[in-house]
Amino acid sequence: MTNTRITRLPAGSAFRSLFERSAVETGFLLTVDDRLGIERLLRHRRTRNSPNPPLLNGLLRHKLRISRGTLEPASPDLVVAGSHVTYMISGEGARSGVLSMNPAPVPGHILVASLLGATLIGMRKLQKVPLLRDDGQIEVVVVLDVRPSPDHAAA
């Protein structure tokens, strides 16, 4: 004779809240400012100087569709524009930079108007996701640390 344990599933709203929590933990979260910043990049064609604008635009639109909003102020482990991010791409060492909505390259900044920046925005510390490269290869990127940038910390 075997013992069968019956586990009761939460009903109604409790079940939905469990599902929503798991969706938040595995997906991307955008602040209102980040969502508006991405929309501005797309609307004003500020991605035109990237190596592959159609691919980047598609990724940014996809990020807008699949990302959920987050309560503000944002969690300190969330990658938002202006945060200093330390990340690692598979097979490479750790790197870092300040995530920026600026469409022009700035030393020490990771542009949201790049495949890397578009991937990082909305991620959380220790989250690991696929990273599409300009040459079409797919790597994995993981966020190792998120801090306020030195510019924002002084403010």
Report on this model:
This protein is an alpha/beta fold and 155 residues long. The protein has a single domain (16-154), classed as Transcription elongation factor, GreA/GreB, C-terminal domain (Chitinase A, domain 3, Roll), CATH 3.10.50.30. It is 34% helix and 24% strand. The chain is built from five helices and seven strands; from the N terminus they run H-E-H-H-E-E-E-E-H-E-E-H. The strands form two sheets. The protein has a five-stranded mixed β-sheet with strand order 5-4-3-7-6. The protein has a two-stranded parallel ribbon with strand order 1-2. A hairpin with a 4-residue loop joins strand 3 (83-89) and strand 4 (94-100). Helix 2 packs antiparallel against helix 3 (53-66). The longest helix has 15 residues, at 12-26. The radius of gyration is 18 Å and the shape is globular. The N and C termini lie far apart (68 Å). Residues 1-24 have low confidence and may be disordered.
